[in-house]
């Protein structure tokens, strides 16, 4: 299933405008567990904001490996992925020693774009701690230019 990404702005009293992501639950294609590393904990004692993207990178690599491809080669020998955008919505604190269950839902906008949605859930209480959306595009690293997503890769995504 192809489709547009979902995300809207909301105004929070005293804070201003915020992006609010909605997670396309019906499109979940991958789930994995990630233990929270001490390296991801900041001075506030909880997971650092940059760590959310590190977790998503790890999970993305696992997802692609399960599909039999990599960020550098989507199966055609020339096309990889490059990230052009990331949106993170922080919903609850995450602490060292906890385990996150991370779900991935891909949304393809042919010919070039792949949105990956991530839902980070604390395993101990099933609390959703964060939502992340990354926008990746097909990229020919040899020619240094944007490239269409290979049709076999899109088929493997099951969307």
Q: How would you describe this protein?
A:
Strands 3, 4, 5, 6, 7 and 8 form a 6-stranded antiparallel beta sheet that branches. The protein is globular and about 45 Å long. Helices cover 16% and strands 42% of the residues. The protein has one domain (29-157): Roll (Thiol Ester Dehydrase, Chain A), CATH 3.10.129.10. The chain is built from 2 helices and 8 strands, in the order βββαβββββα. Strand 7 and strand 8 (145-146) form a beta hairpin. With 159 residues, it is of the alpha+beta class. Mean pLDDT is 92; it is low at 1-5.
Structural class: alpha+beta
The gyration radius over C-alpha positions equals 16 Å
Number of domains: 1
Strand content: 35-45%
Order of helices and strands, N to C? EEEHEEEEEH
Biggest pleated-sheet summary? 6 strands, antiparallel
Summed up, the helix count is 2
Distance between the termini: 4 Å
Shape: globular
Corresponding CATH architecture = Roll
CATH fold call: Thiol Ester Dehydrase, Chain A
């Amino acid at each position: 299933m192809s489709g547009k990404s979902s995300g809207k702005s909301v105004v929070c009293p005293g804070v201003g405008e915020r992006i609010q992501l909605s997670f396309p639950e019906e499109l979940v294609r991958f789930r994995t567990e990630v233990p929270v590393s001490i390296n991801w904990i900041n001075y506030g004692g909880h997971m650092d904001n940059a760590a959310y993207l590190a977790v998503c990178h790890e999970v993305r690599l696992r997802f692609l490996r399960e599909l039999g491809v990599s960020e550098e080669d989507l199966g055609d020998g020339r096309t990889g992925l490059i990230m052009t955008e990331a949106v993170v919505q922080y919903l609850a604190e995450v602490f060292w020693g906890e385990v996150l269950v991370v779900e991935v839902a891909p949304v393809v906008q042919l010919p070039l774009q792949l949105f990956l949605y991530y839902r980070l859930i604390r395993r101990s209480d099933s609390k959703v701690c964060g939502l992340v959306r990354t926008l990746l595009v097909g990229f020919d690293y040899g020619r240094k230019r944007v490239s269409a997503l290979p049709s076999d890769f899109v088929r493997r995504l099951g969307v």
